[in-house]
Write a structure and sequence with these properties.
The chain is an alpha+beta fold and 438 residues long. It contains 14 helices and 12 strands. It has helices at residues 24-32, 56-60, 73-79, 88-103, 131-146, 158-170, 185-194, 205-213, 219-223, 227-234, 236-245, 276-296, 335-349, 380-400, and strands at residues 16-21, 41-44, 51-54, 82-85, 109-113, 116-120, 150-155, 177-179, 263-273, 299-310, 323-332, 356-368. The strands form 3 sheets. The chain has a 5-stranded mixed β-sheet with strand order 5-6-1-7-8. Strands 9-12-10-11 form a 4-stranded antiparallel β-sheet, covered by helices on one side. α10 packs antiparallel against α11 and α12 runs antiparallel to α13. The chain is globular, with a radius of gyration of 25 Å.
DNA sequence: TCTGGGGTCCTAGGACCC
DNA sequence: TCTGGGGTCCTAGGACCC
């Protein structure tokens, strides 16, 4: 019988996990269409512009992330590449399913992007017999419940978990799960020497080039770098990354409730636009969307930025990429106020002789609605109808679909300017698009 | 013909103040 | 004749991420 009567367990070292879905958009498409298995598949961005997700077969053909679709059509024909338009309704729903499964493993979770989450696991890993075994259990359950393939990486910091995940994905011997904390120091060094410094989370292509010029080439080189030198030459961000690689966690999971500090909505046009009325409709449409996001996080905006872009891939055309920041005297979440503000800005910046390829809006200087400063001339009672109207608009659009109810400025025509020729059905979010078993 | 969309954070430098 | 030095705030731009 144990005589240990200590009341609290010894503190455990932090252990972070990173779980992500392999080739997420492609895997979602394959989940509902078995014919896509083992054939090269790409998913295209809005307007069917660029490749934003690639199956392994497509990666093997050398097609890069972000490659323009029109440039690879010949290659696509030769190899039978299947191209799909992006289907964000489907991907968003599948993402929610994966994240709720992960919440069943650890309550400490940060949904980092549509296809990946960080987790704190030091308090729960022992329930599964260690982080590695837990990673395999996650893989198995997600596979069984959603049919999506995931990889899991574990380490003593977020940066190490990221790197572990990369190892799990690239090396079959890990079978999709890598726990760096369970490897020996010599093994860790072996893997860190094997990968270029550009694989480190937080090192983009510019930093990688500068690091290489001073002899820091591998992940291990960076992990062994001299702190003050890194701080002096590259700033605090990279210094923090070095500490994280040395297993000193500097970044914790982030609070999911943090509201956004800015909200942006922009789109390229299917074809170029010159007419200011048409530009105005697009701007108003974007404001509709942005204001909806703004209200969803219960904030108000104190400024609106509106911008236009001509086609930079046609340098012979007149280029004009103006933008204007328009402050609001009274911060607002009312679509009508924000639309008027944005259209005022648009009229100032637009030039009649230019063809525009893209326009967008940003809502800035956001604050929580309940923390709003009252102005001298405020009449809180006068705000109530606006608030009720916006609540009703959002409720109707939630039920009947985005854009069902919108401002007149956003136009009467349905959104047909965008190209999306190869979109799959919204299998999981529309009754009339449910998959049918025969 | 055709080239995505959305975020965050840090730093340098100028304006301004005392 | 001689023209300082330190601090804050703001903004634009750059770097990174997915």
């Amino acid at each position: 019988m144990s005589t240990d009567i200590s009341l609290s367990p010894p503190p455990r070292r932090p252990l972070f996990g990173l779980v992500d879905v392999n080739n997420f958009y492609v895997s979602c498409e394959r989940a509902f269409n078995p014919r896509l298995a083992n054939v090269p598949v790409v998913v295209l961005s809005n307007n069917d512009g660029c490749a934003v997700a690639r199956s392994n077969e497509v990666k093997a053909l050398g097609i890069k992330m972000g490659a323009p679709w029109f440039q690879m059509k010949t290659l696509a024909r030769q190899h039978g590449i299947v191209a799909l338009s992006s289907n964000y309704a489907l991907y968003g729903d599948m993402s929610n399913r994966v994240m709720s499964i992960l919440r069943g493993f650890s309550p400490d979770i940060e949904v980092y992007s549509i296809d990946e989450s960080f987790l704190r696991v030091e308090t729960v890993a022992h329930l599964h017999g260690g982080a590695g075994a837990m990673g395999h259990a996650m893989r198995q359950r997600i596979r069984q419940w959603t049919s999506l393939p995931v990889c899991a990486g574990f380490g003593g910091s977020k940066t190490l978990a990221k790197f572990a995940n990369h190892l799990a994905k690239k090396n079959p011997l890990f079978d999709g799960v890598c726990d760096l904390a369970a490897l020996s120091a010599a093994e860790r060094q072996h893997w860190m020497e094997k990968y270029a410094v550009s694989e480190v989370w937080g090192v983009g292509h510019r930093l990688a080039a500068r690091l290489q010029s001073i002899g820091i080439r591998s992940v291990f080189d960076l992990a062994s770098a001299h702190h003050p030198l890194i701080r002096r030459s590259f700033g605090v961000l990279l210094e923090r990354t070095v500490a994280e690689l040395q297993c000193t966690p500097c970044l914790d999971l982030e609070d999911l409730a943090d509201p956004k500090q800015q909200i942006m909505v922009s789109r390229s046009f299917g074809s170029m636009v010159q007419d200011v009325a048409q530009l105005g409709e697009a701007v108003a449409w974007h404001i509709d969307r942005a204001a909806e996001k703004l209200r969803a996080q219960r904030s108000v905006a104190a400024a609106v930025y509106v911008f236009l872009q001509t086609n930079r891939f046609r340098p012979a055309d007149p280029q004009h990429n103006p933008g204007m920041l328009v402050p609001l005297s009274d911060p607002s979440d009312d679509t009508r106020v924000l639309t008027q503000t944005a259209l005022h800005g648009l009229r100032q910046i637009h030039r009649c002789d230019c063809w525009y390829k893209k326009c967008g809006v940003m809502l800035l200087e956001l604050t929580l609605k309940r923390q709003r400063q009252e102005t001298l001339f405020d009449e809180p009672v006068a705000r109530a109808p606006s608030s009720q109207l916006m609540t009703a608009v959002d409720a109707i659009n939630r039920v009947w679909g985005r854009g069902t109810l919108r401002t007149g400025a956003a136009g009467m025509s349905s959104r047909s300017e965008m190209h999306a020729q190869h979109r799959s059905p919204r299998y999981t979010t529309r009754w009339d698009e449910l998959p049918v078993a025969r």
